[in-house]
Amino acid sequence: MFNLERFDIKLSTEVIGRNFVYTDEIDSTNSFLLDKSNKFSTDGTVLLAEKQNKGKGRKDRIWYSTKEQNLTFSILITNKKYLGKNFNIINFATSLAIAISIENIYQLKTELKWPNDVLVKGKKIAGILLESTSQGNKIDRLVIGIGINVNQTLFQGNYKIMPTSVKLELKEPIDRERLLAELLNNFEEILDKVNTDPDEILKDWKLRCRLIGEKISISEGENIKYGIFDDLDNEGYLLLRNKGNIEKIHFGDVSIV
Ligand code: BTN
Questions:
Q1: Distance of alpha carbon 164 from its chain centroid, rounded?
Q2: Contact status, residue 115 vs residue 88, Cβ threshold 8 Å
Q3: Cβ < 6 Å from ligand 1: which residues?
Q4: CA–CA separation, 159 vs 142, rounded Å?
Q5: Which position among 46, 133, 220, 221 has the lowest Cβ density within 10 Å, counted as fewest Cβ atoms?
């Protein structure tokens, strides 16, 4: 079971995770925080669930995670200074915070995959799902859902990218409380840069993205595009080079070819 006291001692944030909600089972932490009728609106609220019955991944995929083994949680952002911002940069800030936390504590080398996967040795260790709700034409809440494979060692089913976990890589049981606190501490610091220095977030993200300069394919449903991953533009979109033309890609699954 998650030890709230151990987590709390290590948390050094001002806002993120100060309102911490722990639950045994839920459909999806993202869906719960998105639903305004649940009356959670405190900026920085973190909802952690030991098990999700309808855990959501990107593109309507299912996020599988064994009960009490991993970290499946969502962060609610209601502070207006972030709601009007470019969500691509917030996505990068999140994956960067995960990568840095895993590197700091476990000395594992991480790679970032556009738009928002965290990999270790080519296998997926964490995924992020950003969702938002609006009031009129204004976004009024942003929910950042994070799934990190921590202590799970058996993965069954079909995966687009093979999964791994921190435990599988380190061959020892992992302290989830320490990892979550470290991650929220780093996240709060990096999130602040969304306003003060977004270019630094992009620069640090690119340093960990090994696909830039490589031949890639991008699939979006049935549609597959090929080219060189030229760069990211300053809004975080992927620039695909093909025969001298540059195309801006907004979403899709990237693979090396
Ligand atoms: C992906 O890589 O496809 C994104 C996975 C995001 C999973 C997390 S787990 C906590 C939060 N609640 C959800 O239903 N999904 C996200």
A1: 15
A2: yes
A3: 28-30, 52, 55-58, 61, 63, 72-74, 117, 127-129, 145-147
A4: 27
A5: 221
